[in-house]
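Person: Please work through this fold.
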Amino acid sequence: MTASRKSPGCLGILLAFTFLAAVLFLWGGGRFLVVREELKKSDYLVVLSGGKDYSRLDEAARLFNEGWSEFLVITETGAKVPGSEGLFTVESKVYAVKAGVPPTAIVITEKVVDSTAEEARVIKKMMSKAGKKSCIVVTDPFHSRRTRLIFTKAFEGTDMSCSVYASRNSWYSPATWWRSLEGWKITLLEWGKLISYWIGIS
């Protein structure tokens, strides 16, 4: 009888422990993706294209206005914005100007890019051509770990450096991503891309 009365309590503790372990596992899975390195004033402030909103550009404009760089670089994708006649980069430039970035401080890459690896190569070439040595790369939190790996590899063998900074006002949070279908979709997709990168598939 005594053992029987204790069983529900033990079961409750086990369930609570299992739930806590699951939450920590999910939080760790999201947190690992996020890279936000210490900021140093740099030659270029680069905002990567893509994302579901303008949070990357908001963050980049904030950093620019705080004086972390004198130039804001936007990568040219040639992608259309839903409901817009213009290119994504044109819309981004207009948005950046409204956020306080002078038009003369905005640089758009010459080459159209369609991947993070291509963005890294284009930025590297641009910096080399302009004699620039450092950049801050702004992207979404879930995309920042892979971005760091890609840019580090692209800059190998050069005297150029980059730091990666995850947007702070992004919809994505390591602590709560698992509460939404979109969070699951993005996290699993990014982990898949990260693993593919590690094993050399992409």
